[in-house]
Amino acid sequence: MSETIVRFDRVVFSYDATQVLHQLSFTLNRGEIVGLLGPNGAGKSTTLKIIAGILAQGGGAVSACGLPLPEQAVSVKQRIGYVPEAAALFESLTGEEFLELSGRLHEVDEATLQQRIRSILETFGLYTDRVSRLDSYSKGMRQKVLIAAALLHNPDLVLLDEPLSGLDVNASIMVKDLLAALAAEGKTILYSSHVLDVVEKVCDRVLIIHQGNLIADSTPGELKTRTQQSTLEDVFRVLTNAESVDPGVNRIVTALRS
Amino acid sequence: MKRIRQILRTVLRGPEASRLLERLGIDPRRYWLLMDLFGELSERGEVMDQLGRNGVALETAGWLYAAVSALMAIAMIVSRTAPAAYLSAFLGLTGFLLLFILLSEAGNSLVNPEEGLILAHQPINGATYTAAKLSHLARIVFTLAPAMNVVPALGSLLLPRAPWYFPLFEMTCALAVGLVAALLSCALYGWLIRLLPAKRLRAAAQTAGALPFLSFMLWGPLERLFKRAAIADRLPTGPAAQWGMAAAAGIIAITAVAFGIRSLSADYLLRVTGIMHGARRKTRARRSRLFETAAALAGGQAGRAGWAFVSRMARRDFQFRRQALPMLIILAFSFVPLVARGWRTDPFSRRFTTMHLAPHLFGFVLFFVCSLLKYGAEYKGRWIFQLAPARSVAGFARGVYAALYVPCIAVPHILLLPALVWAWGFWNAGLFVCFSLAVSSIYLALEIRLVDAVPFTRQMVATGSAAMMGILMVGAVAIAVAVGIQYFVIFHSPATAAASAVVLGGVAWMATRQAVRGFAEAMRYDLATVSGEAGTLYREVGA
Predict the structure, then answer these.
(1) What is the mean pLDDT of residues A191-217?
(2) Who's near B41: CB < 8 A, 6+ residues apart?
(3) Is pLDDT at B85 greater than 70 in this prediction?
């Protein structure tokens, strides 16, 4: 039986009076790449933040890497890599300085850290830009730095929130290959995205959250069979009750004409 | 100096200091990493400038306070004040000013956790993070407490019956007062973080800066209340009982501070998202059709944009509210009672009325608003103005002017008029209101020149709260002079007052026209300068 890395047990979370997660339960096992899907506002980023130890759940139990959250948040953070969606950066630092900061906060020894930074920056094609400030980086370059920072300390669990955002085609392919290689090394990857064809190709299993509830937890193949759809995108539409053509589109066009 | 700094650095980062930090629950390795990071970010102008991390700002504030305390010391030495009263006065001033500055700085560090959001997923415990965030308070104390006391301490040797060790004693006491003020500031935010929901913290922090002043204002009434209730008579009178009560009060105070600081450090990074989310709560949309139409008449759609932008951002921008609210509370508590006391006394009655202060009160309020208006927490949103056509800037400037003039000058005067007509009669009240309107308008025309950028599009600077207290003191003197001229010259006869109102009205009209034009120019220049910097536009669009 595979080792459980993340356990979400009837987790409840609210922002003010709005309940975002309703008794959400799932597990992630070692070496899995799991896609986390859901419409906007479904609770995906909140779920990732709870696992990352940034938010405390209102009810239920969460554990990551065998440690309870939020009690052991600092120890959990030591073992996870997190790429937040639309993350802010210290823009006056250079790419290299930012990675050094991240690695040192995770107590990676200096020689290993420098060797990893060099290796990752070269692979991502950022080595020549390493001494430029982050405010001069393009969106894709910043995304690469965030991914690099999440991997530098060799985490057991990698949480990715729209990791391919802003990346060019070659970089996207490389990241996808990297995720597969990391999973083969025994790392667990939770991958949140709206790009469903990438999720379909990359992930072993898919969790779909809708209005704070888990509505699907299965492999992409099983989901397609069960819903008799040909793509994950269609499965998503069926499960989240989305209409084929949003009537809002017509409303916008009409408003622009007026 | 460099050598001393090196030695200090070696000692502070050495094994002994690290053991002490560990005993306090602080991870020394990460603490110094964060200290270096915050220092670097501050030096590069990225994070919100903090007084304790900005050497130039701290030095400026130090000189300002040294000058104020030197003047005070000269006055007290000349009047041959007793050493005990002399010491109390300076320690009181030190405690009051430091508490004012430290509360503001601590609040900004803790409830505006921009860096906290970036670092929240890093393995840093709450004690380490808050210690690194608040260490700059110590630098403020060790700079400003000596600056406020060094001249008075040396001057104390000229006091009658002052012992030779008095300067040393005063400096030691001043540092102790500063450290207590720093601990109290941290403890207060610790209690707030523990007791208040995260979403309310920012609002609470915005008013916390006014606490020292409010305590000062309430001291007298509370003392009178205690006297009237004869509480002292009901307490045991024996020396043992009094010592016991004093000890109990001391223990309670120390425990409260200790618990406050402990609350501050526990799971802080887990609350960061909640604190920031609190700032993003839903806001009830308020639309004032009448005022928006007035702004639109002044500047078309761009004028309406200027009005709506400034009036909404002034209510919602964290940095603006954090700086403006304490000052407005202080002004309200100091001036409004004075005006309320004197509104029945006709200014032409040859008796002094505190209503003479009214136009200057509006000027003072507008001074603070204008001096803060260009700064904002969301200053990176400036790019939107760079995409707007340049011709819209003039209308936008008129809208911003209207957003300041209508609520801060026009509406208060309209509200004041019926009460004054009832108390002083139609002509006297009308004349006074016209005079006050003209003076307030001149104030606004002069003060809007302080806004040399698009409102809310510049990062806050460290000197803010420290300089404000100094300006408050200097401004009070200037107002006293102006009020003297009003009382002794202008309001001696209705004819003089009417002539003054007409002349000042004309000056206000011309000054306003020029000021609004100048304000539009300043915004245009600011936007052009900004877009001229290589890479800046890209950074802002991408930010």
Answers:
(1) 89
(2) A90, A92, A93, B47, B115
(3) yes
Q: What are the phi and psi torsion angles at A160 (to 5°)?
A: -120, 125
Helix (H) / strand (E) element for B469: namely: helix B463-488
Q: Which domain holds residue A32?
A: 4-257
ipTM over 0.85: no
The residues in A 71-90 lying below 8 A from B, measured between CB atoms, are: 73-75, 77-78, 80, 82, 84, 87-90
Q: CA nearest A110: which of A58, A68, A152?
A: A152
Kindly report the CATH number assigned to the domain that includes residue A218.
3.40.50.300
CA–CA separation, B340 vs B353, rounded Å? Answer: 10
Q: How far apart are CA B40 and CA B410, in angstroms?
A: 46
At B365, the pLDDT band (50, 70, 90 cuts) reads confident
What distance in Å separates residue A254's CA from the closest CA in chain B? 23
Q: Pick B46's closest partner by Cβ from A74, A77, A92.
A: A92
pLDDT tens per residue, range A52-107: 988 888 899 999 999 998 888 888 888 999 998 876 788 778 888 889 888 888 88
The residue whose two tokens read 């011709």 is: B391
The residue in chain A having the minimum alpha-carbon distance to the alpha carbon of residue B125 is A74
Question: Which of A16, A74, A104 shows the shortest C-beta gap to B281?
Answer: A16
When divided into structural domains, chain A yields a total of: 1
- Please report the residues numbered 89 through 128 in chain A whose beta carbons come closer than 8 angstroms to any beta carbon of chain B: 89-93, 101-102, 104-107
Size of interface A-B (CB pairs under 8 A): 80
- A57 — contact with chain B (CB < 8 Å)? no
A226 at the B interface (CB within 8 A)? no
> Mean pLDDT over residues B357-374, rounded?
88
Question: Which of A49, A54, A96 is the mutation pick for testing B, counting most B CBs within 10 A?
Answer: A54
Average pLDDT over residues B231-245: 75
| Percentage with pLDDT > 90 across chain B | 16
Which residues, including other chains, have CB under 8 Å from residue A27's CB and lie 6 or more apart? A4, A6, A7, A8
| Integer Cα distance of B420 and B216 in angstroms | 31
